[in-house]
């Protein structure tokens, strides 16, 4: 795990699908910076996903610097002065799980490496993620593997985060503060 810079803030925003996580995180980023960086991790594979991405894009104003990194962030330059919103860790984990041929350990190792690389820049980060492990255990082996990966990735980020919020029905609840 990488040590954080003095002024750096790492904030994790978790919650269920359509809970209001992204809207809350976007507002927070705009309060922290006049020109935040939006790091999108989605891969657009169908019309429904295209509409979701378009909804997110339309909500953001021209103040945002938009970057896309469905896998590696290697080669993307960040400044210690940046405030970056990564949306979202769940899609990033999905992408890495398939990139690593459904090998949970390899995908988790790569996610940790990518997160550590981001933290090492000294920039401040707001990382949006989903809390998917609150329900029952899936009968599908791949879904169980993904739920494990997501839970482990969330724990990793929460451990290094200064603040963690859980958004429930549009209401952010702070669950960790340093």
Content-based structural category: alpha/beta
Describe the biggest sheet? 7 strands, mixed
Cα distance, first to last residue?
17 Å
Strand coverage percent:
15-25%
| Overall mean confidence score, pLDDT | 91
Write out the strand line-up for the largest beta sheet, numbering strands in chain order. Answer: 3-2-4-5-1-6-7
Q: Topology as H/E string?
A: EHEHEEHHEHEE
Q: Helicity, in percent?
A: 40-55%
Discrete helix count: 5
Low-pLDDT stretches are: none
Q: What integer value in Å does the Rg equal?
A: 15 Å
Give the overall form. Answer: globular
Number of strands: 7
Describe this structure in words.
Helix content is 41%, strand content 21%. The protein has five helices and seven strands. It has helices at 21-32, 47-59, 89-99, 104-120, 141-160, and strands at 10-15, 37-40, 65-68, 83-87, 124-128, 163-168, 171-177. The chain has a seven-stranded mixed beta sheet, with helices on both faces. Strand 6 (163-168) and strand 7 form a beta hairpin.
Comma- or semicolon-separated keywords:
178 residues; alpha/beta; 7-stranded mixed beta sheet; 41% helix
